[in-house]
C-alpha cells in the first residue's frame, strides 16, 4: 500500500525551509501572498530565456540569443507576471535592457562551455520521513537547474541571478547547499544514476 504524504510541495521550494521556516510556512502552507519586485520578476524572465536556449542546444534545434531575448521580454511583460514596482528603483525599460544584455552574454559566452543533458528536469516524487508520522513528498522540476556531464561524470549546475549572485567576480556558493543537495538526491532517485561530479553555481549578475 502506497504511503500517503502529509504534505506535497514543489522540490524547488524545499531549500527555503532551511533559510526561514516561518516564511516558508507562510508561502507554501498558509498560502499567504508572496509579492516580489521587478528585479525578482526580471530574474524569472532571464531564466525563462536561458532555459529555452539551453534546451534547444540539447535537442539540436535552432534558437538564437535574440530568440531567447524575445522569451525574456514576453515573460517580463506577461500580465500574469505580478510584481510590485515600488519595491525596486528600476523601470521596465531598464529591466529589459539589463536582462537582454545579461542573457545575450550567457547564450554566447557561458552556455557553450557546458555539455548540458537536461534543463529543469522533471523529477520522480520523493517522500521524506520527518518523523512522528509526517511524510513530505517533493514533486515538480529542478527549477533553474541544469544537469551537466563532464569527464568527472554527472553534476548539477544551478543558475542564480541578481545582485548577490556574484561577488568580486566569483559566483556565490554559500547558502545554496540545501537546494543543491535536494536536487542531487532527486536526480539519483529519478534516474538511478549517481551524481559523481561537483555541483556548480552559475552566477548571472
Please describe what this structure looks like.
The chain is α/β, with parallel strands linked by helices and 205 residues long. Helices cover 40% and strands 21% of the residues. The protein contains six helices and nine strands. It has helices spanning 14-19, 21-28, 38-59, 65-76, 92-110, 177-191, and strands at residues 7-10, 116-119, 126-131, 134-139, 145-150, 153-161, 166-167, 170-171, 200-204. The strands form three sheets. Strands 2-5-6-9 form a four-stranded mixed β-sheet, with helices on both faces. Helix 3 packs antiparallel against helix 4 and helix 4 (65-76) runs antiparallel to helix 5 (92-110). The longest helix is centred in the first third of the chain and has 22 residues, at 38-59. It starts with 6 loop residues before the first strand and ends with a strand.
Write a short abstract of this structure.
The chain is α/β, with parallel strands linked by helices.
Amino acid at each position: 500500500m502506497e504511503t500517503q504524504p502529509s504534505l506535497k510541495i514543489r522540490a524547488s521550494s524545499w531549500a527555503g525551509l532551511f533559510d526561514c521556516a516561518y516564511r516558508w510556512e507562510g508561502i507554501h502552507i498558509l498560502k499567504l501572498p508572496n509579492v516580489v519586485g521587478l528585479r525578482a520578476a526580471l530574474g524569472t524572465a532571464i531564466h525563462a530565456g536561458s532555459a529555452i536556449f539551453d534546451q534547444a542546444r540539447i535537442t539540436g534545434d535552432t534558437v538564437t540569443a535574440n530568440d531567447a531575448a524575445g522569451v525574456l521580454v514576453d515573460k517580463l511583460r506577461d500580465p500574469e507576471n505580478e510584481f510590485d514596482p515600488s519595491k525596486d528603483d528600476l523601470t521596465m525599460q531598464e529591466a529589459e535592457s539589463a536582462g537582454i544584455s545579461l542573457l545575450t552574454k550567457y547564450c554566447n559566452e557561458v552556455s557553450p562551455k557546458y555539455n548540458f543533458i537536461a534543463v529543469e528536469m522533471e523529477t520522480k516524487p520523493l517522500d521524506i520521513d520527518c518523523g512522528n508520522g509526517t511524510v513530505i513528498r517533493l514533486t515538480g522540476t529542478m527549477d533553474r537547474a541544469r544537469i551537466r556531464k563532464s569527464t568527472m561524470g554527472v553534476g548539477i549546475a544551478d543558475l542564480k541571478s541578481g545582485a548577490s549572485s556574484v561577488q568580486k567576480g566569483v559566483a556565490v556558493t554559500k547558502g545554496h547547499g540545501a537546494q543543491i543537495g535536494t536536487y542531487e538526491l532527486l536526480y539519483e532517485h529519478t534516474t538511478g544514476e549517481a551524481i559523481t561530479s561537483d555541483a556548480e553555481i552559475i552566477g548571472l549578475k
